[in-house]
Amino acid sequence: MNSDLGSCLRLARGLLRLYSLAVASEQRSVADHLLRALERLAKSEPACEPLLDEAYLRGIRHHGSADPRTPRAEPQ
């Protein structure tokens, strides 16, 4: 594994970890930013796509939404 790929994978794992924490803490806007960063990383480095898939699954499990990127109604 070259160092660029290794760096991308480490970054993707870190983003996934932070995304999971943000979701669990119900910090929706932070989670959305982290998910977008992970999406961009996976777009530039396809080896990171499985970590993006895992983020989608974690979002679905926590939010019960068919699409974790779908905005939820904010409490008033």
What is the total number of structural domains? 1
Mean pLDDT: 84
The number of distinct β-strands equals: 0
Class of secondary structure makeup = mainly alpha
Radius of gyration, in Å, reads 13 Å
Helix percent reads: over 70%
Label the overall shape. elongated
Strand content: under 5%
Helix and strand layout, with pairings?
Layout: H1 3-24, H2 28-44, H3 49-63
How would you summarize what this structure contains?
The chain contains 3 helices and no strands. With 76 residues, it is an all-alpha fold.
Overview of the molecule:
- The protein has one domain (2-63).
- The longest helix has 22 residues, at 3-24.
- The N and C termini lie far apart (49 Å).
- 71% of the residues lie in helices and 0% in strands.
- The protein is built from 3 helices and no strands.
- It is elongated, with a radius of gyration of 13 Å.
- It has 76 residues and is mostly helical.
- The model is unreliable at 72-76 (pLDDT under 50).
- α1 runs antiparallel to α2 (28-44), α1 runs parallel beside α3 and α2 runs antiparallel to α3 (49-63).
Keywords for this entry:
76 residues; mainly alpha; 3 helices; 71% helix; elongated
